[in-house]
Amino acid sequence: DIQMTQSPSSLSASVGDRVTIACRPSQSISNYLNWYQHKPGKAPKLLIYAASRLQSGVPSRFSGSASWTDFTLTISSLQPEDSATYFCQQTYSPRWTFGQGTEVEIK
Amino acid sequence: EVQLVESGGALVQPGGSVRLSCAASGFAFNTSWMNWVRQAPGKGLEWVANIKEDGSEIYYVDSVKGRFTVSRDNTENSLYLQMNSLRAEDTAVYYCARRYDFWSGYNYYYYMDVWGKGTTVTVSS
Q: To which H or E segment does residue A75 belong?
């Protein structure tokens, strides 16, 4: 199975900060990479699909990008409601896998 | 309204069984791949299984293969997860989620765009 490694596992930032979360797959996955936001007690929410496409209704401060080997989720200006855990997910192979998650805390 | 509602979560003894259900409404269930995803306490999301529109293709994460069976009834707009030989590590909130297929003009990309609120399975003696 394809392993997805996220970093950092947690971070603490202030409102208005720029935040980046990285995700590295154990093998090439083309752009079959999605990002989800998950808050306790709620269903996960899709933010970004196909590495860089913003899901309808998601604020434009969220963006995704891809380099040769890594993927990045960026929150351009952190808001209080962005406190959550963020997961990357690959859909390249039939057996999907998630990264271990990055917990974002607001200072 | 597009909606998924899970049910069937329970407290089960190790080695026991439970069947989860997911009722879909507001979309063409019979044209959608469906997924089960879980989150154990204090852990991240784990994709568990998925099933093609007609049930002809099914995939599982290795840790549940041979113990869990996913099925669907398109006449009832329902998805199921039969969980046997349960272990403590199966304790989790279980979510069902719809797979959406996005055509970019070159490739199809897949993601889960509709999720239920989850149902809790606790495996403990």
A: strand A71-75
Tell me the CB-side half-sphere exposure of residue B122, using CA atoms within 13 A.
5
- Least Cα distance to A87 among A77, A75, A97 occurs for A97
SS (H, E, C) chain B: CCEEEEECCCEECCCCCEEEEEEEECCCHHHCCEEEEEECCCCCEEEEEEECCCCCCEEECHHHCCCEEEEEECCCCEEEEEECCCCHHHCEEEEEEEEEEEECCCCEEEEEEEECCCEEEEECC
Which of B44, B60, B118 is opposite residue A43, by nearest beta carbon? B118
Using CB atoms, which residue from A50, A85, A98 is nearest to B104? Answer: A50
**Digit-coded pLDDT (tens) for B16-72:** 999 999 999 999 999 999 999 999 999 999 999 999 999 999 999 999 999 999 999
Q: What residue type is assigned to position B51 of the chain?
A: I
CB contact residues (below 8 A), chain A span 7-36, against chain B: 30-32, 34, 36
Neighbours of B28 (CB within 10 A): 10
The amino acid at residue B22 is C
Radius of gyration, alpha carbons of chain A: 13
Sign of the alpha-carbon dihedral angle for A56, A57, A58, A63: positive
Flag if A38 and B45 touch (Cβ within 8 Å): yes
